[in-house]
Design brief:
This protein is mostly helical. The chain is built from three helices and four strands. The chain has a two-stranded antiparallel sheet with strand order 1-2. A two-stranded antiparallel sheet has the order 3-4. A hairpin with a 5-residue loop joins strand 1 and strand 2. The longest helix is centred in the N-terminal third of the chain and has 43 residues. The radius of gyration is 32 Å and the shape is elongated.
């Protein structure tokens, strides 16, 4: 109050000091602080994903270099392997990043984590069931029959050929 600043004492015994230029109400300061916290959280998650992706690429790079050394086809095979490992590394980095985020959510929001895991588990079950039904021939439709007409007759056996 007045010409000095003092920290806010929280209910848990901590202190909080929010400072912004301009005129802001207490509610507005807390809203801005929550927004800033969310932006920083997503930036840290993005940086974590990028670092994991770079690390996986560094681990898989020797495979591409080894394949580059094969005479005549090495450069093509090495570039092909490099492209494939880049795609796989991106998928693996995304899966590991999402797993890390889910683990952090489990500590702070267990109900939300279990709800999301239930949804993901249900989707995986439905996709697996759909793939198995296609694999084992449990199709939803019958195979259409083709109507044929004979082109000529075999004079010796009396059998019509198509």
């Amino acid at each position: 109050t007045g010409s000095t600043f003092s920290s806010y004492a929280t209910k848990r015994g901590g202190s909080l000091l929010l400072l912004r230029s301009g005129y802001h109400s207490a509610d507005n300061l807390f809203t801005l602080a929550e927004r800033d916290n969310a932006v920083v959280t997503w930036l840290v998650r993005l940086v974590g994903f990028i670092m994991m992706y770079i690390g996986l690429n560094m681990v898989s790079q020797p495979l591409e270099v080894v394949l580059d050394r094969i005479p005549f086809v090495g450069r093509f095979v090495g570039d092909l392997m490099g492209g494939a490992t880049t795609i796989v590394n991106c998928i693996v980095a995304a899966a590991l990043s999402i797993s890390t985020i889910a683990l952090a959510w489990f500590v702070y929001r267990p109900l939300l984590t279990f709800s999301l895991l239930g949804i993901v588990g249900g989707l995986v079950y439905l996709m697996k069931r759909k793939v198995e039904s296609k694999r084992y021939g449990e199709a939803d439709h019958e195979v259409p029959l083709v109507d044929t007409t004979p082109i000529y007759k075999d004079g010796h056996s009396g059998v019509d050929f198509v």
